[in-house]
Amino acid sequence: MSESTPEPTLPSAETPDDLRKVAPGPGSPPDQPRRSRRLKLIAVAAGLVVGLVLAEAVARMVFVHGPGRSLEPLRAALAGELLPAAAFQRCIAQPYLLYAPAPGQRTKTGEIDHNLSGYRGRPVPLKRSPGTARVLCLGGSTTYCWRVETADQAYPARLQELLEARLPTGWSNIEVINAGIPFGTSAELLTHYHFKFHYFRPDVVIIHTGGNDALAAGRGHYHPDYSHWRRPLALPDPWAPAGRRLLQSRLASLILLPFVGGNPRGSQALERPADTPPEITWFPDTDDTSAASDTERFPAFQHNIESLLDLIAADGARTLLVPFRLDPLHALSAEESDQIRRHAGILESLGDRDRVAIAPFPDSTISPGNWLDDCHLTPAGCREKATYLEPFVRKLLERPAAPGDH
User: H helices then E strands: how many in the chain?
Assistant: First the structure.
């Protein structure tokens, strides 16, 4: 008798559908945990994206209003951007002028602060208009009016308003040019007038200077062209394309730029490192490290101002000399104070020359609350300064002069 093979049992019609499904293998996770992990990954990725976007927004605020502003010139230079402020804050390098206000520079609110001719305020046409008097204001940051937000708050603009309100005799209009340059010395005033503002043919030139030159003393290796103290304004070459794209992110810039060498913020970009001699020795027979004696033997400030006065006189213009002044409450080193007083004395002695006037400008002219720092003024202080200088300028303009002379 043989055994029979049992036949497979088939599910009946009454067997539930879920029992007919094949059970998952040991290596296949259920669908629900897989979807849960996928959702977690998406949530983490979305969180990272949102976090990066917020971090980038914060980094951009730091670059605009925070300490990152000091890195913006370096970032812009390495990113290959042609930004007006991509150098010494609001200035750019220029081969013969050393540096100049960056054309097209805007205020925080987007207004044009530097015209395309590279000086602060509204542009003045090069060609003279009959009957229009022209006043040129030469000086450093106290003429430029550093830390005053807009050009129309600076003292040259205020001076124009005062002269327009009561025009000097013989003139039907007035133009005032703010030729101030941050950190400028008598050397920059001389070169800027010779190479640039001479062509504007002003009737009166205001020279307000004497403070920054004082910083050249006491630094050793004295040279009368200040090359022992100043250096060319330059920024590093841009990075490769991939690096330039990376620097479009202010967040990446905040991470990378502190580890990259480059020009620091402000006037230090123009200063040679301390105790480093210049490339050329001007006076091999003298003690180059004795700056105090060399400033007396080779007085750069006096030479520069005298040369500038000669150029202005040759152009037929008159000059108003205005000594540099400090907030009387500001403490200075004895050496710097002595140099500033010495430069003021030089201007006062030069005020006796023909076609040259002097406005003593006592520090009491400015109200105590209208100093922003040791030498810069608030908008109200700029108005006080313009009010003080206006009678001196008016007197020079009202002297016999034919409007069509220039």
Answer: 12, 7
